[in-house]
Design brief:
mainly alpha; about 0% strand
């Protein structure tokens, strides 16, 4: 993935995550539970990490693949070709 796609990936994931973190932070403030900061961060990250991995990242991969006129599978296959290790074509043909 080139620098432009990496920048787009970072920006789009941030755009997905920011509203979630903001809503969680505002909810803690509104509820005024008086929880210690470490516990608020623990709960916040327990909610946002799955959001990133299960919702944001797949959607962003679709956007990046579409911007390159590819499917997500083609995008990942191209990334695998560039990664060190065995040839993905050889592995896929097994």
């Amino acid at each position: 993935m080139n620098w432009k796609n990496k920048a787009m990936l970072s920006l789009l994931i941030w755009a997905f995550v920011f509203p979630g973190v903001l809503v969680i932070s505002l909810a803690f403030e509104w509820l005024a539970l008086g929880l210690p900061l470490w516990l608020e961060v623990l709960i916040s990250t327990a909610l946002t990490v799955p959001l990133i991995s299960l919702v944001a990242a797949p959607q962003v991969e679709r956007v990046i693949a579409a911007s390159r006129d590819q499917t997500v599978a083609e995008l990942k296959f191209d990334e695998a070709r560039k990664a060190p290790g065995p040839d993905p074509v050889e592995i896929a043909s097994r």
